[in-house]
Recover the amino acids of this structure.
């Protein structure tokens, strides 16, 4: 691990967070683009930190909590940056970059797990891991957006409008951003799962064997597909869709923690 | 006591009380007529907006404490218990009433500091009262001063150059839900001045489609034509509420025009697509229970006060400058009152009389060359004494007139009759 990249990423993320907070608080325009620029720098530093580690392992960093968390944080930042550029909305940045920074720092505090050496290699496996963690990142982003939606919706309904409400994105935009994020997650989890089956098939000569991770991943896929289509229907449009999105993410967290650590044989950290 | 004001506003009374004390145009006229018929006031002006109901007046000389009588009148006129009103009503006399009105016209007493609508509403109320001959010299002067204050505050301070209103606050709130309004549809219920202001704001924010619904189709058509909208038949709620994202209601109605069951039906028909309802009517046009419906956001005038407070702090720094303008105009009004005490009038009259006497005698005595110089001088003094007795002495007697209104009328009559335009203040 090259500490220079780590320090660069931490500094850039921290400055970006401060600028996003300033933008959220004051709405002054120069802070917004500067925040995005520093987020980009943070993502770059973070990438090189991950690359260094991957070169050492000869695979994507998936086999310990550090690598998995760090990759999750990087993909979360990247997904958010993409959404920000597509939807031209920066006010969510303060919330997301705070999580990215926390995850990045936590990943360095986590002790390396030496009991599970990297066994799997190759591009299909690497893509399987990256797409799966990208899905988690995208779902985490939609979770954050849904929480903001519900908070803002609650404030608007209660007519208690503070200063922050005026800086947050409109409800309609939050809903669209959340759907975009879930769409990224759905494609990623579908692609990642398919690649996982292919990799298993190549390894064992059969694509299916029982692993609770398979079941919960397919459940997550189904739940988010339901969210994606339900969010446009009369019954679920609005706050109910956001609540469903939050519930779905609870299942994702369950998959990432309980299932990975205690039930799955081959998916400990992704 | 020469000017009296009795009223309530958003600070002293909740919406429920303000609703009950609001005046329609017809009620304002009837109230003014009754107040004068009962001898409570000689000049009357009713200012009734969404946030205030105020009666300005000039009482007869004989009445020294007319606020209790006016309070009782308001209670009786609107059939509201006096106990309920007494905690909400305020009353001001003379220069305090003048200052209050000037602050109202400047937007300093508004729910939204510096709002633009109030000046138009003061102008409308004044015009309405004038048309019905309810005002006289005192209220005419007072309200002309108020309109001038309003204009100056808006043009000379930040309160004026960046006007904010209940309408624009509501539109911004709609943007919190829908984002940019460029692909949205708005339905406006009512075609009065408040509706016009909201429509103007919506157009400024780029609303894509505008529907106008009003009991009077002609007024709806006029508003729709002015802003490029479409007229929708009054009462066709199920059809009219399918398309819009934003509904703005400012209808003069004693009962809500939009009730929960109708909105429930409509929301089901529109697939629970979010609906933002801005209720600017007093009494409220939209049933309060409608706000409990899923994806329905209802904001009435009191709800908008939160936004008002946010803007207020940003604008408060301009208050001292606005107060200076108000001070100046209160001073002018008081000076005008003082001028009624004939400070300048007698001097102007005397000057005019001496000038006319000299010119008149000079012209007529040209034909009387036989008169000696001392005879001419004597004649001049005799004519001067006559004019003094006929004109100046009666003018000076006006000074003793206790009733301001009559005093003003007499002074203005003297000025109109005997002074040239350039001599008038």
């Amino acid at each position: 691990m090259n500490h220079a990249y780590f320090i660069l990423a931490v500094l850039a993320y921290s400055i970006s967070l401060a600028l996003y907070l300033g933008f959220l608080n004051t709405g002054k325009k120069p802070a917004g683009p500067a925040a995005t620029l520093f987020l980009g720098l943070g993502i770059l530093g973070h990438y090189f930190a991950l690359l260094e580690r991957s070169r050492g392992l000869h695979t994507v960093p998936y086999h310990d909590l550090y690598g998995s968390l760090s990759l999750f944080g990087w993909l979360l930042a990247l997904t958010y940056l993409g959404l920000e550029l597509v939807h031209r909305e920066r006010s969510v940045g303060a919330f997301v970059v705070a999580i990215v920074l926390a995850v990045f720092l936590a990943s360095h505090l986590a002790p390396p797990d030496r009991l599970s050496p990297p066994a799997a290699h190759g591009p299909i496996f690497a893509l399987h891991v990256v797409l799966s963690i990208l899905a988690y990142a995208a779902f985490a982003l939609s979770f954050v957006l849904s929480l903001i939606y519900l908070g803002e919706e609650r404030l608007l309904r209660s007519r208690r409008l503070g200063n922050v409400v005026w800086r947050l994105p409109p409800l309609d935009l939050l809903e669209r951003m959340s759907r975009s994020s879930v769409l990224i997650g759905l494609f990623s989890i579908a692609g990642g799962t398919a690649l996982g089956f292919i990799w298993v098939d190549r390894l064992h000569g059969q694509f299916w064997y029982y692993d609770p991770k398979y079941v919960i991943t397919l459940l997550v896929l189904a739940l988010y597909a339901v969210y994606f289509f339900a969010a446009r229907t009369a019954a679920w449009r609005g706050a109910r869709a956001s609540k469903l999105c939050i519930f779905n993410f609870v299942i994702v967290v369950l998959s990432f923690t309980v299932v990975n650590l205690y039930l799955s044989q081959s998916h400990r950290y992704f | 006591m020469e000017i009296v004001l009795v009223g309530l506003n958003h600070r002293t009374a909740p919406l429920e009380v303000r609703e009950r004390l609001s005046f329609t145009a017809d009620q304002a006229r009837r109230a003014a007529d009754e107040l004068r018929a009962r001898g409570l006031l000689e000049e009357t002006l009713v200012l009734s907006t969404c946030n205030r109901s105020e009666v300005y007046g000039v009482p007869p000389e004989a009445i020294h404490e007319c606020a209790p009588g006016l309070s009782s009148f308001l209670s009786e006129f609107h059939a509201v218990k006096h106990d309920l009103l007494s905690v909400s009503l305020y009353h001001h006399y003379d220069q305090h009433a003048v200052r209050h009105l000037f602050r109202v016209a400047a937007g300093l007493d508004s729910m939204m500091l510096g709002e633009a609508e109030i000046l138009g509403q003061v102008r409308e109320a004044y015009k309405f009262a004038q048309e019905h001959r309810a005002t006289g010299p005192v209220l005419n002067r007072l309200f002309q001063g108020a309109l001038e204050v309003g204009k100056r505050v808006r043009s000379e301070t930040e309160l004026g150059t960046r006007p904010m209103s209940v309408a624009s606050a509501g539109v911004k709130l709609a943007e919190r839900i829908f984002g940019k309004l460029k692909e949205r549809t708005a339905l406006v219920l009512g075609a009065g001045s408040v509706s016009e202001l909201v429509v103007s704001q919506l157009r400024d924010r780029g609303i894509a489609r505008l529907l106008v619904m009003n009991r009077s189709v002609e007024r709806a058509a006029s508003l729709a034509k002015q802003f490029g909208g479409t007229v929708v038949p009054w009462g066709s709620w199920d059809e009219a509420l399918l398309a819009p994202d934003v509904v703005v209601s400012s209808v003069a109605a004693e009962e809500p025009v939009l009730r929960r069951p109708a909105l429930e039906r409509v929301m089901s028909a529109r697939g629970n697509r979010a609906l933002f309802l801005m209720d600017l009517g007093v009494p409220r046009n939209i049933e309060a229970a409608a706000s409990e419906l899923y994806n329905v956001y209802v904001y009435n005038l009191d709800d908008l006060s939160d936004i008002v407070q946010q803007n207020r702090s940003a604008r408060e720094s301009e208050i001292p400058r606005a107060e200076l303008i108000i001070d100046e105009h209160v001073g002018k009004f008081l000076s005008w009152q003082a001028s009624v005490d004939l400070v300048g009038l007698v001097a102007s009259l005397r000057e005019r009389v001496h000038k006319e006497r000299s010119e008149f005698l000079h012209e007529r005595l040209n034909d009387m060359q036989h008169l000696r110089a001392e005879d001419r001088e004597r004649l001049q003094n005799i004519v001067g004494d006559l004019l003094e007795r006929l004109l100046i002495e009666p003018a000076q007697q006006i000074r003793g007139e206790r009733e301001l209104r009559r005093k003003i009328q007499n002074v203005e009559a003297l000025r109109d009759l005997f002074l040239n335009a350039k001599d008038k203040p």
Q: What stands out?
A: Chain A has a mean pLDDT of 85.
